Amino acid sequence: PGASPVPVAPPLPQIGEAFIDRFDGEVLSEHWYISHGWSNGDHMDNDWQQSQVGVGPDGLTLTMEKAPAGHSKPLVSAEVQVEPVFRYGYFEVKMKVPRGSGLVTGVFTYFHGDGAIRPNEIDIEILGRNTRILEATIHENGRSTLKRIDLPLDSADGFHTFGIDWRPTYISWYEDGKKLYEEAGPVAARVIHPQKFIIDFWGSTQLRQWVGAFDRSKAPWKLVVSCAAYSPTYTGT
Hints:
By secondary structure, the chain is mainly beta. The protein has helices at about 185-190, 210, and strands at about 20, 30-35, 45-50, 55, 60-65, 75-85, 90-95, 105-110, 120-125, 135-140, 145-150, 160-165, 170-175, 180-185, 195-205, 220-230. The protein has a 16-stranded mixed β-sheet that branches.
């Protein structure tokens, strides 16, 4: 009785400046880094190539297609990253995803980790086998928390807006301005490391149980993003 309360650590500071990119220039702005010359592992049937990134009337296009003869992977595709890092805030894309078993569209934040520090990651993933489901995932401390969400629409039918609101005590996922799901408590609170903002598009034969059978002969496919944005705060619009 009479003991002082245990002090509560203040929230870590927000990191990252607001931006909005409608990809209406002739080339991709220097704000973005284009991944080139590697893949994320043997589970992918493609690697990342700068040649697969384009900007046109519809916006940013990531194209997966057959690789040139002698290439290390059967397919080539694309990944883009925002160069600065972010901690907390609202991440959003407006995109039209491709249909096709074996395909994965990813919009996510990512901290690689170093030695004893495990990676942190917050994901939106939409599988081409069923473009009416969004997979909302948090990766932290070597564990994954996954929620599969039935969408009220088909994300391959035109452009739709998807968002992640990352806060010190919760993480929420949005579709066209409507909250789909919120993860609160210790899982969300442990995601603290500054992260990149990444958009990518890939395919896999090896992960058939998850992504479905992959018929590479149906290439090419395109992921089109008409807008990407970040704001330190989110007011619901």
